[in-house]
């Protein structure tokens, strides 16, 4: 099977670290994966392996050992302002090292570029190439087509003492406005309006205050309405639970099928998760977190099983209480007490260790993808913490899944 990317494509931004890891884990074989230590959950591997390392692994796997193309060497050149014909430094000369002509000619192809004032050029020798320009007039500052950005100083004013030029009044005002608080900026803007316009603007502000009050009232009533209907739904949810778990056999694997039929959670369920999720008998939602907390909690109820201690696993989402847009500040998952050898989020791998000339085989746990990583939410970085690009992507992807 042909490789999906060339080495150059693999090194480009079009191919992410996650794509390379996934390809190597699936196609390179266990020996290659173990040798290069890229086994386990992709989100974990991403954090400990650089893009350059992954590209080298990919090239090794597809049999491409060619080095990265080197940058062409910069040509040697000299730039010197010789004196002009009148003895003034108004002319210049630029010359590049003569490149060698094709091998079959055996002759150099000299190239010269001279901008100094010169007499009319004589016919160039055979095989040479020469440009000659007379020195420019008008101060040597170039014409209107120069690439240098031009600064309009026509509106800049001198200080009274004849010192530095000051910024235009309009720009000074804009800078001053940027340093104001919103209230100060509002007052400054209103003060510049004509009296009749100012009156109309103030009436518009009063209208907006009324709209804001209604919006606040709407949100408060919406929360009350949500609570009212959650209470009305509760008996129906209880009946659903009783039907699923009824003594006559109920509906085995009901919640596993529900999760598999959901387009978001379906991709997170792996074969080794299914036997555990067959014990899932209910999922409950609650927005009553108490202590003035804003957010909600999901409770996953399981029947007693051979996989972990206890029967309830929770995931709690906390929002900023001062933000109307429900901005997530933290998510908390239950630390599951897995029974020995039953943790679906890791696998045991055998590795050889050499110590004092002796080789021994040890078993180590490596993370693997699992639905139950849902209960291991990423830590949200603090204000002063930094994350690299791949860590941001992994955190964003996991948080997006949490909120989906």
TrEMBL record:
Superkingdom, natural source: Eukaryota
Matches recorded under Pfam families: BTHB, NAP
Write out the biased-composition intervals (Low complexity): 65-82
Q: Does the keyword Plastid apply?
A: no
Residue ranges of every copy of the FKBP3 basic tilted helix bundle domain listed in the record = 3-62
Give the region (Disordered) as residue ranges: 61-82, 139-163
GO annotation (BP), single: nucleosome assembly
Q: What are the GO cellular component annotations?
A: nucleus
Q: What is this protein called?
A: Nucleosome assembly protein 1 2
Say which species the protein is native to: Chrysochromulina tobinii
